[in-house]
From TrEMBL:
Residue ranges constituting the HTH cro/C1-type domain according to the UniProt record: 18-72
CDD domains: HTH_XRE
Matching InterPro entries: Cro/C1-type_HTH, DUF5753, Lambda_DNA-bd_dom_sf
Protein's name according to its UniProt entry: Scr1 family TA system antitoxin-like transcriptional regulator
PROSITE patterns for this protein: HTH_CROC1
SUPFAM superfamilies per the UniProt record, alphabetical: lambda repressor-like DNA-binding domains
Pfam assignment, any one: DUF5753
Native species: Streptomyces yaizuensis
Source species, domain of life: Bacteria
Length: 287
């Protein structure tokens, strides 16, 4: 379940409001930066919610924008205070993709395309351990365990009794054939995937090899949608050293259309379960 105060989402909402006030004032980010003697990049990071914002920052910006309504200023100051609180993931220390976790924690729905592996929210612990260890060969056991524990904690959204995450996953056939941790472990993982696919709020579709080229050929991505209408959808693309977050309406629309094409080309939910079951049986029959 999402916490009552999600710092990542608070930063996004606050950043959007500050951008709106700047635009109402008719100022550019560069002009604001010059007035406050800060870099333009700082203003941009504050507005896109990627940087922690202090109450002093809010006070200074409201001064530049000549916001006279004390109720608005007080509300923004409170949002700044809330945005500096720590989410559950901070208890695990430094997490490279903490921004994404904050968004996922508050999302109402998640649509994901995975070309290589089983989606993280649908992984068993042994599969996650073997996958992370293989993907990060230079990481120590403590770091791997931390990442696995975070991944397991993220899955609480899928198993929540109230307001669970609506998850739609399109998985390439390659992910089902990639033997992570051995055949017995893969059989267990695929059986677990089938089990979760039967949940009313989880849909799993397989994109078989025979479909050939498709809109997701360039790689993994996810689309997050939020319960609050004021929070725009976000497209998340995971990178090796940095991640990409797309929030412009045109970008989100393009990826949404791509996803609809992927869903249309993939096997339906029942066909996908049968497809996964057949592959799981192969792991049972072979030594």
């Amino acid at each position: 379940m999402a916490s009552n105060v999600n710092p990542t989402v608070r930063r996004r909402r606050l950043g959007l409001e500050l951008r709106r006030l700047r635009e109402l004032k008719g100022m550019t980010a560069e002009e604001v930066a010059e007035r406050l003697l800060v870099s333009q990049s700082k203003i941009s990071r504050l507005e896109n919610g990627r940087r922690s914002i202090s109450q002093r920052d809010v006070r200074d910006l409201c001064g530049v924008y000549e916001v006279d309504d004390h109720r608005i200023v007080d509300s923004l100051m409170q949002m700044a205070k809330d945005s500096r609180q720590q989410g559950w993931w901070h208890a695990f220390g430094d997490i490279p993709y903490s921004v994404y976790i904050g968004l996922e924690t508050d999302a109402a729905s998640l649509r994901v395309y995975e070309p290589q592996v089983v989606p993280g929210l649908l992984q068993t612990r042994p599969y996650a351990e073997s996958l992370i260890a293989g993907a990060l060969p230079e990481s120590g056991s403590a770091d791997i365990e931390k990442r696995v524990n975070v991944r397991m904690r993220r899955q609480d959204r899928v198993h929540a009794e109230e307001l669970p995450l609506r998850l739609w996953a399109v998985v390439d056939e390659a992910a089902l054939h990639r033997i992570v941790g051995g055949k017995a472990l893969m059989r267990e993982q695929l059986e677990y995937l089938i089990e979760l696919s039967r949940l009313p709020h989880v849909t799993v579709q397989v994109l078989p090899f025979e479909m050939g080229a498709h809109p997701g050929i360039n790689g993994q991505y996810a689309i997050l949608e939020f319960p609050d209408a004021t929070d725009s959808s976000v497209v998340y693309i995971e990178g090796v050293t940095s991640d990409l977050y797309l929030e412009k309406a045109n970008d989100v629309h393009k990826y949404t259309v791509m996803y609809e094409h992927l869903r249309a080309q993939a096997l339906n939910a029942d066909q996908s379960r049968s497809f996964i079951e057949n592959i799981a049986k192969q792991y049972t029959m072979t030594p």
